[in-house]
Design goal:
Distance between the termini: 39 Å
CATH class of the largest domain: Alpha Beta
Strand content: 15-25%
Number of helices: 12
Shape: globular
CATH architecture of the largest domain: Alpha-Beta Barrel
CATH superfamily of the largest domain: Aldolase class I
């Protein structure tokens, strides 16, 4: 039986999450509950079927095949069994409705995938990685929430010569995923707020573990001496010895009304400069692209208090980072 994990999406041809053309592996499960999250379907490690009301034509094909007796409207309470639960709550993600929906109003948002199938999909695009200097980025959700799955995939892909990157919220057991992190060429880690109380308020957890893990990134050094190169089974060049520690980029998702004060940005940059003097930082403007996903899973989109800073305001915050002695990265 193959190694399996919960996957939200495989996104090929990404250019915003590392060098070159990449495939992003969105892994479900996250220990944070950021109020601005754009991937709410990935909070839990379970299969999820979404319903896009705006696409639905009301044909009833989904209801005719549902073993749970869920009607067309997944937001409504189900009549079958008089449970009082909504269709989203009763759904067992069997995907019968997805297969018959003529307008893709019902879609798989989280599914279980075999690692070998993921590797096969990545192989299909290896020529693009080779010519662009790209590779694979693990993201989510939170990739470290599936440590065994991450370890297997990163081990196999690293051995095949693929360049690897990971995006993380930073809230994990460092030693549990150390070997996976050592295989990365690039690590993005979020720093959402320097104030622990504010971090708790907006994400559901304190920032203590995250700040500790950011400091521990400095321990991901060389794993040997020399730099003998060879080819992986994908045909890409890898280093058999002397792999240097990964490049580190600390990301701040800049949420207007939450963490956009000059004091917070300056404190964040000062922390990075002190503990990761060779790391860069990237400031990402807030966006509402995930709003439609809240609709699909039957959850309220409660982000009215947040706003996107204009270009001039973002440039000022980037200048503050530079003033603290930290270089900037930009993968937009």
């Amino acid at each position: 039986m193959g190694v399996k994990g919960y996957i939200m999406q495989l996104q090929p041809f990404s250019v915003n999450d590392g060098e070159g053309i990449r495939t992003n592996i969105f892994m479900a499960g996250c220990p944070l509950r950021c109020r601005w999250c754009s991937n709410p379907e990935g909070f839990m490690q379970k299969e999820v079927i979404g319903w896009y009301r705006r696409r639905c034509i009301g044909c009833g094909a989904c209801a005719s095949v549902c073993p749970q007796g869920i009607g067309i409207d997944m937001d409504s309470a189900c009549i079958a069994g008089h449970s009082g639960l909504t269709g989203h709550e009763m759904c067992i993600a069997c995907s019968a409705c997805v297969k018959v929906c003529p307008e893709n109003a019902r879609t798989r948002m989280v599914t279980i995938m075999d690692a070998e199938d993921i590797i096969h999909e990545i192989h299909r695009h290896r020529v693009f990685y080779s010519y662009s200097g790209g590779g694979v980025t693990f993201t989510g959700g939170e990739a470290t929430m599936q440590p065994e799955f991450l370890d297997y995939l990163s081990h196999e892909l690293y051995g095949m010569g693929y360049s690897l990157a990971i995006e993380s919220c930073g809230y994990f057991d460092f030693e549990q995923v150390r070997e996976s992190l050592e295989r990365m060429d690039l690590i993005f880690m979020d720093l959402k707020h320097m104030d622990p109380a504010e971090h708790q308020k907006y994400t559901g957890v304190s920032n203590e573990k995250i700040l500790d893990n950011i400091q521990k990134l400095a321990t991901l050094g060389t794993t040997g001496s020399g730099s003998e190169s060879k080819r992986g089974s994908s045909g890409l060049e890898i280093k058999s010895e002397g792999k240097e520690g990964p490049e580190i980029v600390i990301r701040i998702p800049v949420i207007g009304g939450v963490n956009n004060s000059e004091e917070n940005i300056a404190a964040s940059a000062a922390f990075v400069h002190e503990y990761l003097p060779h790391a860069r930082m990237e400031l990402l403007p807030y966006h509402r692209l995930g709003a439609v996903k809240y609709e699909a899973i039957g959850k309220p989109f409660d982000q009215d208090d947040f706003y996107t800073l204009d270009a001039e305001e973002m440039d000022r915050l980037r200048e503050i980072v530079r003033e603290q002695g930290v270089s900037l990265a930009d993968y937009r």
